[in-house]
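Entry 14: structure prediction run for Phosphatase PAP2 family protein. Input pasted below.
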Amino acid sequence: MCTERKLTRLDRVFARLDREPERPAHIDVPRMTRHRVVLFTSTLAFYVAIVWAILITSWLVRLDWQVMFFRPYQQWAEIHAFVDYYVVLGQRGPTAVMVAAWLGWRSWRQHTLRPLLALGVSLLLLNVTVGAAKIGMGRLGPHYATTVGSNEMWLGGDIFPSGHTANAVVTWGILAYLASTPRARRWLSALSAVTSLGVGLSTVYLGTHWLSDVLLGWAAGLLILLALPWFEPLIARSEARIFDVRDRWRERRAGAVAVPTAPVEAPVLLKPHPVAVDDEAAAREVASPAHSPRTTVHPPVYLAPGPHTARGERTPVTPAGSRRPPHTERIARGPAQPARPLTGG
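Run finished. Output tokens:
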């Protein structure tokens, strides 16, 4: 009896990862609905109300000073080490790298640049809006406060609103914004809300921000996420333009690499040329000259000029570069002379 193994959730995840990258047939792009417009307007009113409460030095400023004098980092010193690491989830550099890596993998799997472009637009809006508010209001932080009970505005600071809190809202909230299913969007929205809430309270615990800074940071990050549907047409046009440039570059590169080939012509059939009788005889004589009776033997040709002399009549020559001395007393060999008769005496 053969039974098939039931696939677990982990098996289904790996099977999905092994599939070839493909662009989804339908991408759910959030639209600026009436409900979202109401949320955006309410959040903007909350933002303005917090700024106004700080400007007039209302009860919110007194609450900031009370929390600062409470010194949470001394009241709960045992969690100080954990909070030091947890607050990194609001730093722009590490969080942007992690989220960009995940969205880049999603872009490659789905053959779309929308996740990366949406992240880029949200971070650009975050830098412009939050940075301008920080520089414009110039509020000092709790560690640099000068007058007890004052709002510390326009003194050259840069902590209002909280950049850590706004960055946590935008960076982790973009994952919920780009979720492909409603269930994933709900879970990721709750997770990003808890993460950004913890990051904001961590800055208050460490004494780097006032409580009102964190409230304004939450509002600033939420405004950016709620306004993203207005930038979806710009994201779509940018994606189409980038893909168009990529396709033209590929075509130009393929045209530069390809080598033009000449057209192949049809083969030409060659016919044998008629040979005359005399030509056949001449061809036979050229093909077999050794058997032809008219073959003549030419005398050998000497390469050296001048008359040929016998070996005995040649003058001895010492080779160039030889170490042997020249034989001046040596005489040239000639014809043998008759022996001289021996005489007595």
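Notes: The longest helix spans residues 232-257. Will compare against the previous run tomorrow.
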